[in-house]
């Protein structure tokens, strides 16, 4: 057996352990009764330990060295490179730091649940300082290992190849036009009369609608399921993708748009190249590309007028509301593209969302690089919210810097993926429109050419190409935020 | 750390791996979409391998030896003994034999699916011969390791301490009265006019009824769930018990009685002593005792007249059939206690079921001991079916010796557990009746004292006592099949 083959065997083993861990995590969120949690968490930790021991085995360094000297096909070379990238990521942090991060993050998040309600920044910030301290240690170790700056080393975990220099430039551009665009859109929309659909919308009927839409969007039910959980997610494994939603009987659009979003994630997973699924090279390229697929489905596709022409009648039918004017296509278009600055990121619309991300990016970048401290966050938050969205969060920590919990598990570097994803999605759609009349295809209920394009240019590419090369191959250029601006202007100003 | 503590830590690790395997097995049967199966099976096999490697580690022999010399509490001594029993069971078979068994069994079962339909004994028997050959090898190895006879060594896996000498005596007694009892019951029942409830009984309503009964029977939904699968089972782990059923819209009683049966298994699991759950001593004593709990719930409790007085009105209500005479208490009592010899074991009633088990026991015992060969089975099957139940299976392999698939996975020695369980259940009920008026408690809807008795005498005993000692402690004597006879006579002849 060659060393490359040994590494493949080893990686397959890790992939299988990950499979069981993914299914049990899904179960924990979607099916497990409360009383099962303690034993389950212990069992999951044991499996994580087994995974860790295998993935950090001492002999692997030699295997990689020897495999690199072997004669390999072009695909195998890329696969080996991705296995090695994964191995390095898994091996660079000392075990104590991983444990410290996990404990400190859990403690911070647990306390946050009541501290947020009490608007108690003072106590929360003490925990967050420890989280940031550990995140800086992690960033330093990753920086030393990669030769990148501290924050860039963190970014590289979620969007390999991306740097804060590039993001600064891109987000810097967005900042020049976004605040005024938001104001213009609001001024224009102030003349619209929009009806808010009024519940109750029974969960069972929402589920029927969700399953129908998933199937129209090509979700493969022989390789996946839809279930319910408190926090919607896309989990499982590519051969068995588990997406979840939560039905709000007062507002069916939240579950519906959520399901469409997760279906985008799911189709990417289901579309990955079958023969490489056990290997890093066969997995999703990055968090940004993942989000580009969910946002392509949710924003580019499903909030478009031609698609709402499909959605609205289905909703009227499933809820037996043929004469409900709030469910007319015209009103649903207005309702689905309503723009309104708000404090809470996860409730934000497509136009204001990037403002939330830019704010978080600028703060976390400077936190990790040591240019600011935790104590500086509230003032910065208030200043940026005011500047980007015209909303002050002075003294309001609950709806300000205490609303998100992403940082407590040390995921610094993750936030930009959301807006990078939105930009990739707009750029993909623009390229697709050059090749086919997307709106007509939707009107003809012929979505297959759209999915085929994504499958060919993104899903089947998995991690064989870098993010930049995926963009270049699919759209003819690297990331160009103009497409995103163009999309927003077209959808929100010229309708 | 003492060696006993090391063994506890090791055993906990095995228990946690088992936890994930149990949840993923449940998922595979109850939730997994078809397309997930290949990757899932590979992942499960990987976890089984990890479990096997851990449980057969070379250093364990020394650990056990040293732990046995340590100063231990009485409970720890029993726990150590049970850990060792488990370790020996896991270690005695050579890896190739385990693999051979698995491959040969899968092949035999897979071919059986079509061979059974085609009544093709000739080809099936060739596969079965290989299965029996491997089972004999296994039995010989286990016999050498335990000093028991070959079949007794297999029995010991499912009902530790049980021997074919004891079973021969007990089943021998049953054979003296069962065939004539069956005839008497049939003669007496021939005068009854019984209505068969006619469907459709919608699955949703059956589910509502099932959940209601489970909760009346004390199933703890914070530590378990009810779902649907093709073959009903009780799975999961004691802190999170997953039972399943299958709804037949033509016959609600099959799912209902199935759910009650699995609830009996589940309550045993949920009632095991919390602080010992990770260790063999904290687990169910035996398959026979496990079945005694499911049959206590299903047969002793739920087919009793006072319980049907609860069930029947609930059924009428949930199906909105207040005037359906087939759902009257009187008719439900007759319907639930109908006795009719048939070919198929899994469809058999309480009275004829033991005949099916005795037949299988006598054949598998002689097969394993080498007194008969596979080629002898059809003739023996026909002879015994005719003798015990008055039904000939000559030339009818499909409904004769090809109906069951238990033997293909090498589970020789398992069949007696079913009837031993029925006997234990009857003996437990008789003892309970000496302490409390069970029928009155049921009529008063006060089942708690019944559950408390089972909890105290069986569930909390886990594997701290042998099966014999559980019986002795709970009922004052060892297995006495007279209670089972008495139960059948009381229920089926003197009503
Ligand atoms: Zn997403
Ligand atoms: Zn059972």
From TrEMBL, chains A, B:
Reaction equation(s) it catalyzes: Release of a C-terminal amino acid with broad specificity, except for -Pro
Entry EC no(s): 3.4.17.19
Active site: 262 (proton donor/acceptor)
Cofactor: binding details: Binds 1 zinc ion per subunit.
Gene3D superfamilies linked to this entry: 1.10.1370.30
Cofactor(s) recorded in Swiss-Prot or TrEMBL: Zn(2+)
Gene Ontology MF terms in the entry: metallocarboxypeptidase activity; zinc ion binding
Signal sequence bounds: none
Annotated Zn(2+) binding sites: 261, 265, 291
One family name in Pfam for this protein: Peptidase_M32
Gene Ontology biological process terms from the UniProt entry: proteolysis
Classification via PANTHER family: CARBOXYPEPTIDASE 1, METAL-DEPENDENT CARBOXYPEPTIDASE
Family: Belongs to the peptidase M32 family.
Function summary: Broad specificity carboxypetidase that releases amino acids sequentially from the C-terminus, including neutral, aromatic, polar and basic residues.
Protein name: Metal-dependent carboxypeptidase
Organism (species): Photobacterium galatheae
């Amino acid at each position: 057996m060659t060393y490359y083959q040994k590494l493949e065997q080893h990686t397959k083993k890790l992939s299988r352990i990950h499979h069981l861990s993914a299914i049990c995590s899904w179960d924990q969120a979607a099916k497990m009764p409360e009383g099962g949690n303690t034993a389950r968490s212990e069992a999951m930790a044991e499996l994580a330990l087994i995974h860790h021991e295998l993935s950090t085995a001492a002999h692997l360094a030699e295997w990689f060295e020897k495999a690199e000297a072997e004669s390999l096909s072009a695909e195998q070379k890329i696969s080996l490179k991705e296995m090695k990238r994964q191995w390095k990521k898994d091996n660079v942090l000392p075990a104590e730091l991983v444990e410290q991060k996990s404990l400190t993050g859990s403690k911070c998040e647990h306390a946050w649940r009541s501290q947020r309600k009490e608007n108690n920044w003072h106590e929360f910030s003490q925990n967050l300082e420890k989280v940031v301290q550990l995140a800086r240690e992690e960033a330093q170790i990753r920086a030393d290992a990669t030769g990148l700056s501290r924050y860039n080393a963190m970014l590289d975990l979620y969007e390999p190849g991306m740097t804060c220099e590039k993001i600064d430039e891109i987000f810097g551009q967005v900042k020049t036009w976004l605040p005024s665009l938001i104001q213009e859109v609001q001024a224009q929309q102030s003349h619209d009369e929009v009806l808010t659909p009024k519940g109750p919308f029974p969960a069972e009927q929402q589920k029927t609608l969700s399953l129908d839409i998933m199937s129209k969007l090509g979700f493969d039910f022989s390789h996946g399921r839809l279930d319910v959980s408190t926090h919607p997610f896309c989990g499982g494994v590519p051969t068995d993708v588990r997406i979840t939603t939560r039905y709000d009987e007062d507002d069916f659009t939240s579950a519906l748009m959520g399901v469409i979003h997760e279906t985008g994630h799911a189709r990417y997973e289901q579309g990955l190249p079958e023969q490489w699924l056990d290997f890093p090279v066969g997995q999703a390229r990055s968090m940004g590309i993942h989000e580009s697929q969910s946002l392509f489905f949710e924003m580019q596709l499903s909030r478009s007028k031609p698609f709402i022409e499909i959605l609205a009648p289905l909703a009227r039918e499933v809820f037996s509301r043929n004469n409900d004017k709030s469910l007319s296509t015209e009103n649903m278009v207005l309702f689905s593209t309503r723009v309104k600055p708000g404090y809470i990121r996860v409730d934000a619309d497509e136009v204001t969302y990037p403002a939330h991300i830019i704010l978080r990016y600028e703060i976390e970048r400077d936190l990790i690089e040591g240019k600011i401290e935790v104590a500086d966050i509230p003032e910065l938050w208030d200043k940026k919210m005011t500047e980007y969205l015209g909303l002050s969060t002075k003294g309001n920590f609950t709806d300000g810097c205490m609303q998100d919990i992403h940082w407590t598990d040390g995921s610094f570097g993750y936030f930009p993926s959301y807006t990078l994803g939105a930009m990739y999605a707009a750029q993909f759609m623009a390229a697709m429109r050059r090749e086919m009349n997307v709106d007509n295809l939707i009107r003809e209920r012929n979505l297959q050419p759209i999915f085929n394009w994504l499958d060919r240019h993104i899903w089947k590419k998995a991690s064989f190409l870098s993010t930049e090369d995926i963009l270049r191959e699919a759209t003819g250029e690297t990331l160009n935020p103009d497409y995103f601006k163009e999309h927003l202007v077209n959808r929100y100003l010229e309708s």
